[in-house]
Amino acid sequence: MPERRVFVAGFDGYLGWPLSQHLLKRGHVVAGVDAFLRREQVAGLGACSAVPVASPQERKSALREHFQQTPDLRTGNMLDFPFLRAFLKDFQPDTVVHLAEIPSAAWSMIDQAHCSFTQHNNVIGTLNLLWAMHEVCPDAHLVKLGTMGEYGTPAMPIPEGFFEPEFRGRRDRLPFPRQAGSFYHWSKVHDSNNTMFAWILWGLRATYIMQGVVYGTEIEHQSDDPRLKTRLDFDQCFGTVVNRFCCQAVIGHPLTIYGQGGQKRGFLPLRDVMQCLTLVIDSPPNAGDYCVVNQFDACYTINEIALLVRQACSEEGLTVDIMEVENPRMESGRHEYQPDREQLLALGYQPAGSPLQEIRMMLADLLPQRERIEARAELLLPDIRWDGAHRRSGVLGREAAG
Ligand code: USQ
């Protein structure tokens, strides 16, 4: 593959940090920006990453020691347009990966301030990036991280971005409807619209990634250097469901199924995110083309996820109870879910392994971190509710292991 100049917006995050390493390993020239908001926001909840996270300085030193090049990683905010524009002009990327957004549904639903902060940060940050690319690197390929949650859970199959409905005898190719379920997910819909419009307006070459729920602690050939490990959150805002369940399991906390657990989502392990993003980076659309890709490995209900975690735990001799708690969210608890994922398969995506294998690896990484999780166990039951109230979810039922 040709060497590329890749700009990673959000290099310090759960995905951005391993992606930067993965790209360096593949010989690409990497630069990036991060405002370290995630560190601040997790700390603001009284939470921490289950896997200890090195300081930004330690992380940079580790990159210098492990890789042939010292990437140009700068502290800065996507809301600072002059900074962003100047950095892109200076670096002249041929690929820009945009991961610099607040990723949490629950955080965006805390109150008006968190909601507007999320939408302002995500929507204006993305607009700034679109304008900066248009002005200083118009031929670069934008790889923009969206979410499967933009589609919601419609009672029909979900295509990749576009479909061809027939209405009153006429057909057209139109964006598939978005029906997001949180103000965070709506921020991504607004990004989708703005990115598509930049393509229509300026011919911006872009791949919009509709990503499912990510889980996992490792990437391929992960170094043992603890400074290179990525974060793994388990609080109600930044911990995604599999990651939370694994953290709960290692401290013997019952797995917190919201509602009856019939919600279905697309999931993929962190290592697969690396593979998928690399495939997309290596196969940019033609100049002036715009492509929407659904990025996940397989779909599971939350109940199925809980049973997988329980199975992996029982192999380790850990007993895991499962409990249903009042669902703090407004979401459908029983629905169809049939999203397409043809494009990544066509590019060569081969899922790295089974979810059970991945969960086993996570447990091995998380067992030594029990004390860190235990010290913050009170953060495991959700209290941020979609109806605006702040009240801890009551327990609806509990199923003991075995
Ligand atoms: N859930 C539980 N118990 C928990 C946590 C979550 O039952 O302890 C349920 C939720 O009710 C939801 C599902 O698990 O139905 C997924 O929740 P999540 O917190 O893992 O994921 P979500 O809020 O949807 O957001 C995450 C990422 C987000 C990304 C999205 C992809 O935080 O950045 O966009 O996954 S997707 O879900 O496909 O929209």
Descriptive report:
It is a single chain. The protein is an alpha/beta fold. The protein has a domain at 5-233 and 268-298: 3-Layer(aba) Sandwich (Rossmann fold), CATH 3.40.50.720. Helices cover 37% and strands 18% of the residues. The protein contains 13 helices and 17 strands. A seven-stranded parallel β-sheet has the order 3-2-1-4-5-10-14, with helices on both faces. Strands 11-13-15 form a three-stranded mixed β-sheet. A hairpin with a 2-residue loop joins β7 (166-167) and β8 (170-171). α8 packs across α12 and α10 crosses α12 (355-366). The longest helix is centred in the first third of the chain and has 25 residues, at 112-136. The model has no long low-confidence stretch (mean pLDDT 97). It binds sulfoquinovose-uridine-C1,5'-diphosphate. Sulfoquinovose-uridine-C1,5'-diphosphate binds at residues 103-105, 147-149, 212-213, 240-241, 244, 256-258, 263, 265-266, 302, 329, 331.
Notable characteristics:
402 residues, Rossmann fold, seven-stranded parallel sheet, 13 helices, 17 strands, 18% strand, globular, binds sulfoquinovose-uridine-C1,5'-diphosphate
